[in-house]
């Protein structure tokens, strides 16, 4: 058994702040009123929702798997504050998985099997990495996509339980995206301070990784284009928004890391 630090430093104040915020913000599927009348009554609409929610449920399960795998890796790297936060991220993904599994019961439908929806599996497989910055870059696409889809569910208000699920997940996703920025900014601050050329190389490598993950999204949208259209979601506009926001979030982390490294050197 490896003991990484008998007494961890816990000096990364922003990491600790978002960790405590996550602890205070926990909620449960048991907090929802599942007895409210189901507004999705049409069998066709129920079928469409069952198919459309497949990548959502798949994404929550894949995120639970990958986040759980990163927790010991951060421990080995003595990044204890980040390790703390990822324990709550794993709880979030487990909660989201339970919520959508229960919502499938409410719909009386099942998700598409992998053999009928390989594009969803391939997208999630492209995100997995045991290197934290690579994983966070890939998962940034998935998290922004989840955010956009939940915003659409809130807007459409198809069912009171689904709207409440989406609203709660949006709060969780905001924290995940906040941690993503904090971690990546700190990583680039450190790398720019030590080796600016390596930092630029890393930035370009992560940009390419993000574009590779983006390339896995159109097959998902194509497979569900009828469902998106009939439920009332503009899939092309949604994907364009995901690309714009995810790219800008990555660039913001790079810019802020470089700026802070320069300020520290000047001081």
SSE layout and pairings?
Elements: H1 13-24, H2 43-52, H3 54-76, H4 80-107, H5 118-127, H6 132-156, H7 160-194, H8 196-214, H9 218-223, H10 225-231, H11 235-266
Helix pairs in contact: 1-4, 1-7, 2-10, 3-4, 3-5, 3-6, 4-7, 6-7, 6-8, 6-11, 7-8, 7-11, 8-11
Distance between the termini: 41 Å
CATH architectural grouping: Up-down Bundle
Helix content: over 70%
Mean residue pLDDT: 95
SSE order, one letter for each helix or strand:
HHHHHHHHHHH
The CATH class turns out to be Mainly Alpha
Q: Let me know the CATH homologous superfamily.
A: Ferritin, core subunit, four-helix bundle
Residue windows where pLDDT falls under 50 for at least 5 positions: none
Number of domains: 1
Taking the sheet with the most strands, its summary is: none
- Radius of gyration (Å): 19 Å
Briefly note the structural class of the backbone: mainly alpha
Number of strands: 0
Determine the CATH topology: Ferritin
């Amino acid at each position: 058994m490896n003991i990484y630090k008998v007494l961890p430093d816990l000096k990364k104040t922003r990491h600790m702040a978002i960790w405590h915020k996550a602890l205070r913000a926990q909620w449960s599927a048991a907090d929802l009123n599942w007895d409210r009348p189901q507004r999705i009554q049409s069998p066709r609409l129920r079928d469409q929702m069952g198919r459309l929610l497949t990548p959502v449920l798949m994404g929550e399960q894949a995120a639970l798997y990958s986040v759980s795998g990163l927790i010991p890796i951060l421990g080995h790297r003595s990044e204890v504050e980040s390790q703390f936060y990822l324990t709550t991220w794993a709880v979030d993904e487990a909660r989201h998985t339970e919520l959508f599994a229960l919502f499938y019961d409410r719909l009386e439908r099942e998700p598409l099997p992998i053999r009928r929806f390989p594009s969803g599996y391939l997208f999630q497989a492209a995100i997995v990495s045991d290197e934290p910055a690579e994983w966070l870059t890939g998962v940034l696409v998935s998290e922004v996509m989840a955010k956009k889809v939940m915003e659409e569910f809130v807007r459409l208000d198809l069912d009171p339980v689904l709207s409440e699920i989406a609203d709660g997940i949006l709060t969780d996703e905001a924290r995940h995206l906040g941690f993503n920025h904090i971690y990546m900014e700190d990583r680039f601050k450190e790398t720019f301070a030590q080796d600016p050329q390596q930092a630029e190389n890393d930035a370009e490598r992560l940009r390419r990784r993000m574009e590779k993950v983006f390339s896995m999204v159109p097959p998902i949208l194509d497979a569900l284009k009828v469902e998106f259209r009939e439920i009332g979601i503009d899939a092309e506009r949604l994907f364009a928004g995901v690309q714009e926001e995810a790219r800008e979030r990555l660039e913001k982390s790079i810019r802020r890391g470089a700026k802070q490294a320069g300020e520290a050197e000047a001081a």
